[in-house]
Amino acid sequence: MRVLAAMSGGVDSAVAAARASEAGYDVTGVHLALSKNPQSYRSGARGCCTVEDSRDARRAADVIGIPFYVWDMAEEFDREVVADFVSEYAAGRTPNPCMRCNERIKFEAVLDRALALGFDAVCTGHHVRVDDGRLRRSVDGGKDQSYVLAVLNSEQIAHSVFPLGDSTKEEVRAEAARRGISVAEKPDSHDICFIADGDTAGFLNERLGGEPGPIEDESGTVLGEHNGAHTYTVGQRKGLNLGGTPERRYVLSIEPVNNTVRVGPRESLLVDEIVGERPVWSGRAPATEPLSCGVQLRAHGEVYACRAWQRDEELVIRLDEPVAGVAAGQAAVLYEDDIVLGSATIASTSRSAEPATVS
């Protein structure tokens, strides 16, 4: 089987490519150049996509003994991930750019190109397992990436190879050292790869401006002023600068139309119904009746008991108990134990839904 191994220049993708080659696959390594200005996407251990990363990936490919190429996908990345990130914040939502990158770059644009070139699958260093065609959590719970891969459909999973799901990160680093791969101790990248300094608010202000607007409570009383509604997210408590307001306040909503940030007590954050858009069912057929399962609402977040079903083109989720701080734009990922059933992008939330009948 011909496999295209996506090699970021980090230890995970290098060991994944080595394992795929050792398993007998005909492996070719490829590094994705995602930045028009590579130096802008990294600062220390933050980010990725630098010239250094490309060289690290090439050195790893040489050690493994596989062909290696660099694919320039900067335009696709800027259009599908960076521009989407900015527009989502402008709309008052909180996106997950890693999920969009997996969905639209690594397992859409790259996989499509790989198949067109005669490859059978794409191999990556994601910490996740595939069991009978379904995504399953990694044995390393702290590094599990099933949440950010839950946007993949069944066909994409069938053309993917994930060699690291049965190993911990410590085992991967030790194996890299044994193999003589120089990035064995290279730090993991952190935060958002295209915001090298980690200043998300500054990045958004540069692109969307910082127009001041009111911070209001639920009754419409103005409590303070912000310098850009897009720099806030639902559930945020710190950095509100409400002066002498004695009560602890949280961001309840961001309203870009009138440039208003709405705040209130934690109780007002609680929701028990979530509606998601663009549902993907990869672990089972779409549920047309309420299905008892678990839902994860943010990366590395808690899993909550719920009932979920598809209604027309939406995924409806009724939580068994109310949850605080659920932000539109994030992903809702359904699980049965440690197996991914499906996912959707959160479009709206509400409180006090009527009980759903379990099928």
Automatic annotation (TrEMBL):
The record marks 126, 330 as: Interaction with tRNA. The active site is at residues 101, 193. It is found in: Cytoplasm. Its EC number is 2.8.1.13. InterPro entries: MnmA-like, MnmA-like_C, MnmA-like_central, MnmA-like_central_sf, Rossmann-like_a/b/a_fold. GO terms for biological process: tRNA wobble position uridine thiolation. Residues 143-145 are annotated as: Interaction with tRNA. The keyword rRNA-binding does not apply. Its main location: cytoplasm. Gene3D superfamilies: Adenine nucleotide alpha hydrolases-like domains, HUPs, Translation factors. One of its GO terms (molecular function) is ATP binding. Residues 272-346 form the tRNA-specific 2-thiouridylase MnmA-like C-terminal domain. This is tRNA-specific 2-thiouridylase MnmA. The keyword Nucleotide-binding applies. The lineage of its organism: Bacteria, Bacillati, Actinomycetota, Actinomycetes, Streptosporangiales. The gene is mnmA. HAMAP family: tRNA_thiouridyl_MnmA (MF_00144). Residues 203-264 form the tRNA-specific 2-thiouridylase MnmA-like central domain. Catalyzes the 2-thiolation of uridine at the wobble position (U34) of tRNA, leading to the formation of s(2)U34. It is an enzyme of class 2 (transferase). It catalyses: S-sulfanyl-L-cysteinyl-[protein] + uridine(34) in tRNA + AH2 + ATP = 2-thiouridine(34) in tRNA + L-cysteinyl-[protein] + A + AMP + diphosphate + H(+). Belongs to the MnmA/TRMU family. Keywords: ATP-binding, Cytoplasm, Disulfide bond, Nucleotide-binding, RNA-binding, Transferase, tRNA processing, tRNA-binding. It comes from Halostreptopolyspora alba. ATP binds at residues 6-13, 32, 125. GO terms for cellular component: cytoplasm.
